[in-house]
Known about the structure:
Chain A: This is NADH-quinone oxidoreductase subunit K. The structure holds two protein chains of two kinds. In chain A, 77% of the residues lie in helices and 0% in strands.
Amino acid sequence: MNSLSVYLVLGAVLFSLGLFGVILRRNLIGMLISIELMLNGANLNFMAFNRFLAPEPAVGQIVTLFVMGIAAAEAAIGLSIILALFRRLHSINVEQARRLEG
Amino acid sequence: MNSFLTSGLIHAAFWVVVGLTFGGAVLAVFPRKIVYNVLGLIVCLSGVAGLFLYLGSFFLALMQLLIYVGAICVAIVFAIMLSPPLHLEVPKRRMGKVVLSAGASGVFFVAIAAVIWKTVWHPAAERGADWSIVTIGHLLLTRYDLVFELISLVLLVAIIGAILTTGFSRRLSS
């Protein structure tokens, strides 16, 4: 249970599921949820390396904290863009948002 | 005997947490109803918080619960309630797209898993044992000072930008 590769495979699975969701979903909120999954996979990797390999155990935790802060900012901006788009198009399907397509 | 039982219990709990994380992630990606996705995301993020506990960081587990489950998931739920996409009809999924995206992410996963399996990981020569929150606080205010301030600036800009984006779009459309 306590081996590095278990956590790394877990992080890789989370990231791949998030990637799958980003490609598959057409619902913008669904895509945002998948991006959160990908960020969590990366976080898990940072924490695993921090626990098993890193010389200073505090640094990985700090990087994970920074990723969480960025994720919060990204969620706020993304959700406000989704709300603005919904008011314009009455839909949150990405395939409807093609006004800039040319 | 007792310690054996305890370690077995901890071991079992680890796999339960892993199962919660997987189940939540699957639930967050596959169903087409967005509310189930958010529920799955909450379960998955709580599972990741449990994994952080196993990785020895109680502080990060609490932060995970506070920031992700407490803030981001609640914000997503608010966005779902403000824009009623639940009543819109959900377009059917095309089978080809499902297969292609599963193939793409599968190739990615296989590549990463091969790298994990092939690499021989060496721990650092001398490893500190300082996990405490005090050290994290000291490092945040000394060595990572600039990054810390930049993160706060980014968050401030994000908040103002979110307010402006939603506010201006309302004014323009009405």
